Here is the input.
Amino acid sequence: MNLTLKVWRQPNSDAKGSFVNYPAQNISPDMSFLEMLDVVNEDLVKKGEDPIHFDHDCREGICGMCSLHINGRPHGPKQAITTCQLHMRSFQNGQTITIEPWRATAFPVIKDLAVDRSAFDRIQRAGGFVSVNTGGVPDANAIAIPKPVADEAFNSATCIGCGACVAACKNASAMLFVSAKVSQMALLPQGQPERYKRVQAMVTQMDEEGFGSCTNTGACEAECPKEIKITNIARMNRDFFTAKFFKQEEA
Amino acid sequence: MLTKTFKNDTLMSSLKDTFTSSLGKKLIMALTGLFLCTFLVVHLIGNLQLFKNDGGKAFNDYAYFMTHFTPIKIVSYLLYTSIIVHALYALLLTTANKKARKVSYGAYNGAANSPWTSRNMGILGTVLLVFIVVHMSNFWYEYHWGKVPFVEYRTDLSTGQTTQTELAAADFKDYVKYTDNGVEITRAKDLYATTAFAFQTWWLVALYVLGMAALSFHLIHGFSSAFQTLGWDHKKYVPLIKTIGIWGFGVLIPLAFAAMPLYFFFCK
Here is the structure.
């Protein structure tokens, strides 16, 4: 396959970036999208040019590191996969592919296609955990949890924090990420003691980071590689309003 | 343990905290939006009297009642406030949302993951705001402070026959309804005639139909979106909310409203 890549190049967070066109030649349709970029980068290095900087780690869709906005959609044209799981057979020979970083003020560009997602870490640090006293290991399944509830908590917990929800949202809102992290613990008994403090603390941190608000377009849910549902957002709102209007505990 | 601490000792500081948050602002949008939806239902039911073939008697009686019954007047001020707050918060949220993405995408395929209506609530809302200003200056302002003709209805209570005559401004003091010798006499401001006259202008009719199209698309997303914001997303009720939002508020109500200018333009 021969393709034209229209890639966002930006030397650092302060510089103004722009699109640069690169040919991608002799690409196998069986390559993953990141392998295709590796091939292009090898050529660039051989020519003595600066290779395209992009985030990647596990390359099996579980680490949440890869983050490309491909032809107007986060993680490319397929559903429920990350960029590293996207293969070149999803594109046609001769096609021009636009590759951009996630665009959000809260995710500043580090270089080229890599963005700084530490805003998510700070939100997690504000309340995305349960406090557990040290001591003996508790028995597994000592606390009975209904299967549908456990399943839902598990589904929420599958969020890998890649930021595709923010990238897809027209408002660059982080509600899907935050609500998944709130939900996975709000649903389980271990999350109850800090439930209402947690939601307030995490929402406050989310606002401080400069993410947008939710218009309920559903774009985040449609683009999420882990298919996190927007029912999580409704749950987060419910918990937040409950905390603010009906609970005494302030975060 | 959670280390972040806030000092919300008083109700006021807690409320301020709540309504300056992104979720709190959306709560205001949802609540004012749903209140405006309930108003639409009442407004539609009342205005259906325009279709009654009685020379506008029922409609003019209704117009007087709506502008002079105290509880309704109180609700009407709540309504004006809601419109302003809804628009103002939309502006605040939109500004903040624009700030959240200062550099826009070179390629953005929103159609691949979200409905058009949901991405254009601001544009639809702006069209609606223009419509509301035009609509209120056409009828609300005219009825209160403008030049509305006056009318007298005489209904023979034994036969039920009604005759109507236009009253000169000098002969009209205030709305009255009384019975004299088996004849019910009503003198009122003739908002019905104002309506019938206004909707002889083709571009005004077109503007009203356009306004109702915007209302339709705004509510197809807006009604169910408000429930999602409130966190009312129980599996049992979501299909019902979606059905009411799309077919009730998105189709039936805008169609019925749009039928009014069209009825006067083509049938009167």
